[in-house]
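Input for the complex:
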Amino acid sequence: MTPATPLSLPNRVRALQRLAAAVLLLAAAMLAAQSARAQLRVDISGTGAQQFPIAIADFSDDPNGRGIAEVIRADLTRTGQFRLISAANSGLTIDSAIDHDQWRARGADTLAYGTVTQGGDGAYEIRYRLADTVQRGQLDDIAFSGNQAQLRRIAHQIADRIYEKITGVRGVFSTRIAYVLKRGSTYELQIADSDGQNAQVALRSREPIISPSWSPDGSRLAYVSFESGKPVVYVHNLASSQRSPVANYKGNNSAPAWSPDGSRLAVVLTRDGLSQIYSVNAADGGGLQRLTRSPLIDTEPFYSPDGASIYFTSDRSGSPQIYRMPAGGGDPARVTYNGSYNISPRISPDGSTLLYVSRRDGSFRIAALNLSSGSENLLTDGPDDQSPSFAPNGMQVLYAAVQNGRSVLAGVSSDGRVRQTLSVLNGEVREPTWGPFNQ
Amino acid sequence: MRSRIAKCLTVAALAAALAACSSVDLDDKAGAGQGGVGQGSGGAASTGEILDPFNPQSVLAQQRSVYFEFDSYTIPEQYRGLVETHARYLAGHAQQRVTIEGNTDERGGAEYNLALGQRRADAVRRMMTLLGVGDAQIETISFGKEKPKATGSTEADWAENRRADIVYQR
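Predicted:
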């Protein structure tokens, strides 16, 4: 590990390192981002149920090649599913003959290696291969090209390929996350890479921003902004930066959720009294349709991946619990029963698992409910974990946590075994949400 | 800051020296609302009382916050007089519009707190409409936990933020 700027290694982590080989501290190189420059610190604890031993050689012996390998190592390490075998000073290039038995003897079942070359026009060519030292074969071989600013993204794409070749599950390292960063009295809606790097500001405001929600194709964000003096739902096109209100009725407008086909937004309005769930056209806010009719609170709609159902929070039973109803409205069925405060439903991409925030003994924790077996797994310990969302491959959960009185970005594997926190040292991170696979 | 707020609330609870709260650097400091209305007997419109929401000397400008108990959305007895005073004024000034802004303490999710703040604002709205204020005069909104007046995490801070404010629109 050769962590770059900025880095601190707490004693707490040193102690843990002696106990578990996979307790690592990373700080990735190549801090990018202009106005959104933020100091980051990543802590990881725990190990996956299974760990794949892998060696990742520096891609040719130059700063860009080392940087690419470092990003790949950091990506794979964060999952807790990989154990890094040192490939220091291997001197490997894309054309090296691989001594499978030697790497096998070192403990690496797979070996990633490659080369970065810069052409006369300044563009880079990145070639990578993945060797299987057990089968003495090659699992992957591909070339990318791009400019300096794209090297980091290409490294994430290579990490995605490695992850999929070895685990059989699509990688999420090249996806993006959205969150609100509060600094003083300023709120910034930021878009960052899945590792929190390369953050860009989509919206800066003096008034609160909450509930960002990605369109299924990743091109737009819906969110709630208080800029007009009250909560109004906007849809924001990330490429053009064009934004417009899609729900701006009397009272509150909040909790936007996209239908899986991207055509409709479920929203929560108070135009008829207390919070109730409606839907509108995502494109223009037209086609208003009321979906719930209850005397109390119905909020936080979330479509099931097949679009047939909407999960939501309601206190119709006297305490907030999660319910499910047909996407067009209709009789709701109660889904959660453990505890007296269950909010913020999210469904895994395969539809099998419900994620929510549950208050237990005064602590807000992230819970996962297997919808077929009914078994519940508390993924986190609190004390104030909020705003959970699944990675698009369902393997990781992103949420907001409070550590030492500060709001930070946190992640946990869907089985609860591996945890990570990412602190933005100059602000508070709120309302994180993981974006979809790149189209 | 926290201790000053706590001190102010204590002082207010004793219904004494409400002016002390003006030293807290928060405008429309609500200690004024803490049992300070005392018009349950219907004395709100007593002779000489200034009833002008835009006159800083008026009770309508000074006392416009309703505080709620934890996990409660019913208007406490000691604030009914305050709501009645505003409702009588609004019923007599049908062109005047108000926004009722609900707030919650910082505990729990952003969206659910937004809905809870709305319940508090709506409780004030319902009492006002029962007293003859027109529906079109009132907009209820919620800031949930997003715009806390007290930014600490003590019981006193939380109590300060479980609140609905009556805001007159010019």
